[in-house]
C-alpha cells in the first residue's frame, strides 16, 4: 500500500516553516530525514510526502516527527497533517 503524508497550511495569511521531517520504522529507529534545510508552506498550500508501495523499511508501525515554526503571533493550529 502506498502511504501519503499531507501537511496543509490552512492559514490564509501566514507561512509555516518546516524545519524537520524525520521518518521512523516500527522499532523506533530513524530511517531518513526528508529535508536537509528548512522549507516553507505558503498560506493555503499543501505539502505531500509519498511513501512508495515498494518502500517497506518503515514496517506496519512507521511514523514521522515534524518540527515547524510559524511567524510571531501566528497560532500553531494552522498546520494540519493527515
Overview in brief:
The protein has 82 residues and is mainly β. The protein has strands spanning 3-9, 16-24, 30-33, 39-41, 46-51, 63-69, 79-81. The chain is built from no helices and 7 strands.
Overview of this structure, please?
It is built from no helices and seven strands. The protein has strands at residues 3-9, 16-24, 30-33, 39-41, 46-51, 63-69, 79-81. It has one domain (3-81). By secondary structure, it is mainly beta. It is elongated and about 40 Å long. β2 and β3 (30-33) form a beta hairpin. It starts with a strand and ends with a strand.
Write the layout of secondary structure elements.
Elements: E1 3-9, E2 16-24, E3 30-33, E4 39-41, E5 46-51, E6 63-69, E7 79-81
Antiparallel strand pairs: 1-5, 1-7, 2-3, 2-4, 2-6
Give structural attributes.
single chain; 82 residues; mainly beta; four-stranded antiparallel beta sheet
Q: Gyration radius, to the nearest Å?
A: 14 Å
Distance between the termini: 16 Å
Average residue pLDDT: 85
* Assembly status: single chain
Classification by helices and strands: mainly beta
Portion of residues in beta strands equals over 45%
Helix content: under 10%
Q: Biggest sheet: strands, sense, closure? A: 4 strands, antiparallel
Q: What is the H-and-E element order?
A: EEEEEEE
Instruction: List the domain count as a whole number.
Output: 1
Amino acid at each position: 500500500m502506498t502511504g501519503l503524508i499531507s501537511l496543509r497550511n490552512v492559514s490564509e495569511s501566514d507561512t509555516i516553516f518546516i524545519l524537520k521531517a524525520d521518518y521512523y520504522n516500527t522499532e523506533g529507529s530513524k530511517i531518513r530525514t526528508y529535508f536537509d534545510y528548512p522549507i516553507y508552506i505558503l498560506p493555503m498550500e499543501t505539502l505531500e510526502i509519498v511513501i512508495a508501495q515498494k518502500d517497506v523499511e518503515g514496517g506496519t508501525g512507521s511514523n514521522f516527527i515534524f518540527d515547524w515554526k510559524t511567524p510571531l503571533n501566528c497560532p500553531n493550529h494552522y498546520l494540519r497533517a493527515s
